[in-house]
Structure formats: C-alpha cells, structure tokens
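Build the 3D complex.
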Amino acid sequence: MIHYCIRKLLTMIPVLLGISIVAFALGKLSPGDPAIEALRRIAVEDPTAEQIEAMREEMGLLDPVPVQYGTWLKHALSGDLGESYLDGTPIGAELLRRLPVTVRLSLLALFWTLLFGLSGGICMAWHQNSAADKVLSGVAVFLLSIPGFWLAIFAIILFSEILHWLPTSGIDSWRSYLMPSLVLAASNIGVTARLTRGSLLKEMGQHYALVASSKGLSRRSVLTKHAFRNSLVPVVTLVGNYFGGILGGSAIVESIFAVPGIGKYALDAIYTRDYLVIQGYVLFTGATFVLVTLAIDLLYAVINPKIRLEGGVR
Amino acid sequence: MGGEDIQIRHLTVKFPAREGWSVAVDDISLDLPSGQITGLVGESGSGKSVLGMSILQLLGASAKVEGECWYEGKNLYRAKEKELEKIRGGQIALIPQNPNQSLNPTMRLGRQLREVLRLHGNRTGEQGRQYVLDLLRELGMDRPEQIGRSYSFEMSGGMNQRVVSAMGLCGEPQWMIADEPTKGLDAVLRRQVYHVLKEISENRIRSMLLITHDLQLAWKLCGRICVLYSGVLVEQGGGSELFRNPLHPYTRGLFESLPAKGMHPIPAPVREKGEGCMFYNRCPLAKERCGRERPGEYQPEQGRIVRCFLYA
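Done.
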C-alpha cells in the first residue's frame, strides 16, 4: 500500500512539471510585450525605447528562456502568480479568494451526482428491462444530452421568473447554490446512472455472483454485498474525473448564474486577454486535477484489495 | 424412493437464440437417488451443467425451464424465491466450476464462508468461526486462520477449490452438486479435487451429483452414471458396469476417446438436429431407421437404460 502511494506520488511530478511548462509557454506565446504592459500599468503611456529596454532588463525578459521558466516556477510555487494586467491585483490571492465558492458549488454538484446517479443506476439494474428501467434510461439520456446552458436558462425561467423560488444569480445564501449545482450535475447524473447500471449488471453476471446466489443469498444481498463494491471502480473513475474538472471552475454555469468562482474569473480574463490570469488559472486547475486524480487512485486501493495488497495493475 | 431423492420429470431447458429457441436439455426424466454419487457425463454443450443448475434454479432469467423437479415434496421449478433461498446452500449446495472466479475478489474469504453460516444453521460468532476452521483443516488446509483473512486472488487455484468446497459444506446440506470441479485444472489439482470430493462423500454428504467431462473422475467416484448427449440422456447405469460394458454407441465412443484407450476420436459433430436420434450424424452404427425416428428408452439388463435401437 505504501509503495503504491509513493509510486502514485512520484508519477505526479512529471505531470505537474508538464502542466507548468504549458502554462509558462502560454504566457510567453501570448501577443503583446509584457514590458510595455507593465509600463502602462505605472502610467507610462508612451514609453521610449530605453524605458522598454530597462523594463525588460528589470523583469528578467532578457534572460535565457529556461532561466525565466525557473524564476517563474519559483515564484509560482510560493503562490506568486503575478498580477492581473487589468487591475494589478495579485492573481494567486484572487484565485484563493474565489476558490471557496467554486469548491462549495463543486461539492454540492458531486453530492447530487452521487445521490441521483448511483441510486438511479442501482434502481435501473434492480428492475432491469422493466418499465421503470426504460423510463429512467430515457431520463438519463435526456439529462446527458441537453446542453448545460440551455438547462440553466430553462431553470432560471421556471424557478426564478415564473415560480419565484430561487434567485437568478449571485451567491447570497445556500439557496443560490441550488440551481447552479443541479445544472452542473445534470449531465453527469445521466452518465453516472447509466454507467452504474451497466457496471452493476456486469458484476451481477459474474460467476462469483452466481455462486453467491447458490449459497442462498437473496438477489438483494448479492447486489448490495457482493456486486456493488466491485461495480464501483469505473464509477469512481468517471465521477472523480468529473469532480476534478468542475473543481477547476465551470465557466458556463458560473457565468450564467454570475457565480463569483474561478471559472468566471478565467472567462473574464479570456475576454480581456488577461494572459497572466489565464496562465495562473491553467496552472492552478491543472494542479487541482492532478491532486484529485491522486485521490481517485488512493480510493481505488480502498475499494479493491488487489491494488492495496499487490500495489499492482487493476 | 424417499423424499430426499431428486426426481426430474420431463425437463426441457431452452435459451433464446437468434432464430427461435436453442434447446439445451430436451425432455429428460431422471432420478437422482440419495445416499450415493450420481455422475452426469458428456461433452461440452451436452447440457449437463444446465441440468445441474436447473435444480437450484440458477440458470438466469432468459432460460425457459419446463418440467418438474421433486425434492422433499416440493417442485423446485415452481418454488418461490424465498423457498429456494432456504434450499440453496442449506439443503442442496453447489461446488462451482472455476474456483478462482467463484469467489468475490473484494471480500475476505472468511466472510464469504461465514455468510453461509449466517444464512443456514445456528452457529454464530466464535462457534461458527471454529466450525469453518475445522472444515478447512479437514479439507487439507494447513493454516486455516490465515485463509480467513485472505482474498481469493492471493490463493492458488487448488486452495480456492477447497475454499469453495468448504463454502458448499458450511450450510450442512443433504445434497451437493459438483459442477465440473476439475474443468481446466492440471493433473495435480485434479488429483486434489478427487481427494476432496472423496473426503466429502465419505464423511459429510452422501448424496451428490457430479457433473463432469472427466470420465476417470466419474469412474472413481460415482455409483451411478448418466451419459448426456446433445441435451438427451442416452445411457444410464451403475458406474462400474457402465465402464466395463458401455452399450450406447456414443458412450463407447466417449470411452474409446480416452488417452488410455488409444484416443480414438468420435467423428466431428454436425450441427443439425433431425427427427431421429441425436447421435445419428456421428454414429458408426447408424441405420436408416435412426435418422427417421427418435429411439425410446430400452432396458437390456437390470439397472441399465439405453436410448438406442440396438437394444430395442
């Protein structure tokens, strides 16, 4: 188990380095001269060639690229992701300020996904090929195929404009999280339910499930005590990746519901071509995704003793 | 015939196929007397496992089972799910094929064994644990305490075979159905399985149905043997007589294909079922009548039943 954890931790390092190189390259390749941008921020509107050269020298832009990368990485690791071109606020601090909103939204969406996705999938598998199975399958396909932005607008019209139950935008109370989180979870509820159904039925068809029945266990016990745990590995992979994705901020939902999370921050930065913010965002969400993936790998080991004991292949 | 015998009457099992139905077992009537081992032999696809699993009603929802199976005054094919749950493992237990795949890979073996105790019988807690340990020791496991804490993937095939055997015994059933216990095992493991089954039949459970394509295993263990071909029961008889003097051309062919008998192959099967005898297309002794008419069951000598016109 310890070997497994260490190996997983070590494999993270090259991935994180790769992400940092991509993020750094994004900043380097972006159009515009950072020295001129920096001069403008200190109100030098029409800088002379000497001033630009001096600024480049000061910002280290004349160093070889690997040296620049090293300096940038050192700053990034200590939380200094630079400042926004637009208003000069420190990017790291702004990301941290917005993070709790996105985390709350993501956790709630994860909760809905597990609640409705798993229970829907179990229900479909239990009533396989019945009317309930077909209706729920239809609902699942519907959920996973409607676009998020459409569902968001529809939900706003229904719950805010017509019924006046929920606020349309912003984050004022827990009620503000309801609509965005459900919209964020909707398509993944559909995918999770279908995957859970398929995975459970596959496990119920395995030889060990038949043998469990031959011992006198009821179908319910075979499903809950034997098949369910084995069916979880693909579901954990799917839900984990999804969670890693939305933790990085969900641009569409945050934008439509005006949720001040990191997805909205990145989207605004794209509009204003605030490259350093985008760079910080890429680095931040990339690292988050890698950490969540690590958590999924550790969860595998909890579910499947074969990984835990042998640290081996799945 | 006591209530503990298993009596199968007119069993037909069909599975949905691309066109219509695929018949796995075709109108079989068979008595499995309690107190002895009955062997059910035949090649792959002959329907022997299907017959065995039909007794426990474990064929899955797609199978269509017709006929009756009487055990202790109950027709198992019409029994309610709750009744079947009591019978499975408690009165009729299964030793499954593929021991490695028969165990849940994410549950410790001890828990899988104790599960049976919880369902059948009244041994609980420490008493139950001790019972399982004794059982494992009896089946030749050196350190049973350690096995209870292990997972199936940590064990060899032979050890898993003993675990599933012990699992079948945990509920102290009257009957045991051993489904292809030697399938896919090497010679050493086959020998171990033989000893385990012999041990069980001598000390624990006298009534057993042994489903196997392993003729030597059947010969060594079974008091009675039934030969299945293409879903039809072609010959029944006492174990030693049947091996000494096989009557049906298929049984003869089956025995002659054994390595010890020179490995003479039976001609390859032709996959079409006519009106006549199932074995017509491959039979070296086939007559014109065999292709037209399905032979009935004939009794050339006491205790022997053969489905072949040679003995009409």
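Chain B has two domains: 6-91+173-311, 98-172.
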